[in-house]
Design a protein that fits this description.
Layout (H helix, E strand, L loop, with lengths): L7 H7 L2 H10 L20 E6 L9 H16 L1 H4 L1 E6 L10 H17 L3 E2 L15 H6 L2 H5 L8 E6 L17 E7 L2 E7 L6 H12 L5 E6 L23 H9 L5 E6 L9 E7 L5 E7 L12 E7 L4 E8 L4 E3 L6 E4 L8 E4 L4 E5 L20 E4 L2 E3 L5 E2 L12 E10 L5 E11 L1 E6 L2 E6 L18 H6 L2 E4 L8 E10 L8 E11 L6
Parallel strand pairs: 1-2, 2-3, 6-7, 7-8, 8-10, 18-19
Antiparallel strand pairs: 1-11, 4-5, 5-6, 9-10, 11-12, 12-13, 12-14, 15-26, 16-17, 16-20, 18-26, 20-25, 21-24, 21-26, 22-23, 22-25
Amino acid sequence: MRHLTRGGRRRARALGVAAAVLGALLLPSPAAVPTGTVAKSGGGEAFTIVVLPDTQGYTVSDELAQSMETQTQWIVDSRERLDTAFVLQVGDLVESWPNENQWERASRAMSTLDDAGVPNSVLPGNHDLDVTTGESRTYDSHFPPTRYADASWNSPTASYGGYLGQDQFGPDGIDRKNKDSYSLLTVGDTKLLLLSLEYETPAYAIDWAERVIAAHPDRAVILALHGLITTGGVRSTDTERTDVTPTTEVDLWKDFISENCSIAMVVNGHWAHGDDGEARRSDLNDCGEPVPQILSNYQGRANGGDGWLRYYTFHPAVGSVDAFTYSPTLERYETDDSSRFRMPVDLSPSHDDVLLRGGSTWRVWNAKGDWPTGWTARGFDDADWAQGDAPLGWGTGVETPVDLGPPPENRARAMLFRQTVEVDDADALSAVTVSTRADDGVAVWVNGALIGTSHLNDKKPTSETFADVGRSTDTATDEPVTFTVPPGLLRDGENVVAASAHVNYFGTASSTFDLVMTGTREGSGSD
């Protein structure tokens, strides 16, 4: 099931440089944001969401549990200063799920939030349930749905939405109590769905999550998981649950997160290696929008984690989030690039049709010399071209490697890509755009007509054209280039999208390509 693209930023990009300049004027640089203070962004309400990482190291003893209690008390005390709207706990509340004492310590610390009326949620990690049965009577008894449904913080702007097992959006087929849940949060004009899913999310939880997202088309989603990216910033294929067919982190991204374009950001814990428990990455979803995925987990540090936590201050007006890492126990911030950073994040939903999803299979031509005649047009025979799933190229984040080296001088200046798109009732489509992830430069054609170029030395690119700048894969992902498809260019039936991805110099460390086409269909909108 494929859902709605967050089109707010895509439309802003269509305004070109003016939108970028406006964003720069409204949002101060990271260094200019006083640590621990919300920077109010012009034209929108900034707010904070706190992520409480794995607390298992604290709940093993009464002494160490004081750090978790200090964390939750600090969240309460700083709530007004930070405009804290919600707290997401990302699993492994305890070290050993059968241990009643550990659950009592975790529950007592989280009660500090409940008593102060701070909206919050939890989810089970691998230490919170039996990985051979999937059950946890202790989790269920200390963090049942009633704890959240009856919480004092429920209000018109923040509320517990429900859980897998109440047949809210059709038959669930299983009752997982509060192991999979969602909440609704509204801050000014920003509407969010906060979705928490159990460890190694089984198919039944993914099916339920699909229905929850579909029932809230007017809300962007922040997804909380126990595990998604590791300390190396990659997604794992390892699993340990045996009660179900577990979903690997790789498959969770490919088959759920990337296909649900309402998901604006993902946070997780679980992974840690000694003191190292931070990582982040951003990948384009099927709608061509970057989705930040962020790990924070400090359980490998001294004293169960020394009280370190992560909070995110969102600036909806300019589409970004500032991340801060703070220890109420040590009373200090961590300010290296892994701990204090800014990422683009768009919290505005829209109602666009995905005509060509990211990660699609493309025909590829990669050779030196003149380009094949007519390769951008309909009717061109590309049967002898290679093919592969995007992102294609070489370097970071590539799904299908495409290269001609070594040595670098063997490379062509550009790779060529072709894709066929079937369109029904083209006249009912408007605001059709093509968003590309390409480093370094790119040109795009639709049905043989050049609709745009970016970062190229020539406005009419050829096989001799270099890119005019070196763009990293991260930059290309975070800053997709968007072109508008002129009205009337698409036709009913088969259409051809073609693109050339150009390098800045032969020895460049990466050259990657992906592309998404979306449009607004007459009559679409929120339910």
